[in-house]
Amino acid sequence: MRLPLLGAVLALLVVPLPVAHATPSIEWSTCGPERPDFECATFTVPLDHDRPGGATTTVALTRKPATDKARRIGSLLFNPGGPGASGIEATWYFGNKMSAGTQGRFDVVGFDPRGIGRSDPLRCFANDQERAQFLAAGPIFPYEAAQERPFFDRYRSLATKCDKPIARHMSTADVARDMDLLRRALGDRKITYFGHSYGSFLGTTYANMFPDNIRALAIDSVLNPEQWSSGRQIESDRVAARKVLDEFFRLCDEAACAFGPQSEQRWEALLASARAKPITLNGEVWTYDRVIEAGLFAGYASERWTDVASLLDQLSDASAGTLAAAEPVYDNFFDANLGNMCADIEFPRTFGAYRAISRYAAAGSEFGPYWWWSSSACADWPVNEDRYTGPWRARTSAPVLVVGTYYDTGTDFAGAQAVAAQLPNSRLLAYAGWGHIAYRRNQCAIDYIHEYLLNGALPPAGTVCPANPNPFSDLASQLAERDFRRSTGPVANR
């Protein structure tokens, strides 16, 4: 369904490909004694790809060199999502796993996209304290009518605070163009790419802008690009998290977890209590928006469901108290997330439109407003003139592997189904379980992804990887804890 307010925001545009650029060189060196398996470098690209002879920006890189150099295939580029997550940090987490899974035949290459992490980072605040004060000045999202206008005005002011040169060139299309330059600089005739979450949107954008340059492209936990680029992602967000939470309740009651029995009824009572008065637990104050955030986390990490159930159980039993805000640690993720999202998507401009769509979001589930209101930072933010908004139906030079999880808060399974339908040369692989990013938690999906990246072999049509055991079972908890500690990196928004 397309909302009138959102549907009028964008028309699909065909963005012409940039003029040819000279290929920059890359000089690799050690990342330091703490990262002995990895090399690091920087890569210079045009700030504006329409002006290749003008100002430049730098992209920070890391790589895990191929261990089987005699049979080396090329480079495997990786993006973990966000938008705003560091590809370098994620590659330091996942690089050894990806290298081993592809028999050491690739240089596994991670990069911080422009404006993110170590790549000319966009910073909207002078220091950690200023950022923490901004976030602590209001709720995580407005959940009372009186909170909406102050929240909107505060977040809208970020367009001025974040108005830096890099902010005007942070669209996903800019990153895709950087990635194609990187492919050439690495000496690869065609690209091999693996992207999670928002990294799926980068992969889909690249596939449609450079369809003839694909050797293998796998995307996991997939955003529907038609929905995302047109500002209609709230259509998915308003219901996806509740689908996962319903599974949380079902499996909690089935396994007699700490939050059961009747976990759904306890959740509704907990929300009502937190709305009426903040809850104090062990000296920490939980307002309604923080309880919603705790429930949302369950949709990302099924391996933490026993911990979430224990927390919700304690909150349900706790008495009300006084507010004490925690101060977050500053990093570039918050700024970069907005820098990329606002560059890509033309959101509504008025408070009235935001308020109306918030009602639509809330009608989907209690999680809808959480997702929606942060985009009000984009109300006064100019979209990037070089962004790519379609078409999304290119026939790629090699098949694309599209991986989706049935119950995923950040990227609904419908997104994977949509991309598999949009790209005529693609194959859908489903994981019938819970959590964000199948590559983090399901060996069946992991094996298919590695085999595809290595040999281009697709799973049989209609393949569904069975769900892992009930996350509340003892066996599942032990296995998930082991796998989580071995392989996980930071959890991104998308």
UniProtKB/TrEMBL annotation:
Alphabetical list of SUPFAM superfamilies matching this protein: alpha/beta-Hydrolases
Keyword Nuclease tagged: no
Domain AB hydrolase-1: from-to ranges: 76-439
Source organism, top-level taxon: Bacteria
GO terms for MF: hydrolase activity
Keyword rRNA-binding: no
Keyword annotations of the record: Hydrolase, Signal
Record's signal peptide: 1-22
Pfam families reported in the protein's UniProt record: Abhydrolase_1
Protein family: Belongs to the peptidase S33 family.
PANTHER family xref list: 2-SUCCINYL-6-HYDROXY-2,4-CYCLOHEXADIENE-1-CARBOXYLATE SYNTHASE, TRIPEPTIDYL AMINOPEPTIDASE
Name recorded for this polypeptide: Alpha/beta hydrolase
Native organism: Lentzea alba
Taxonomic path: Bacteria, Bacillati, Actinomycetota, Actinomycetes, Pseudonocardiales
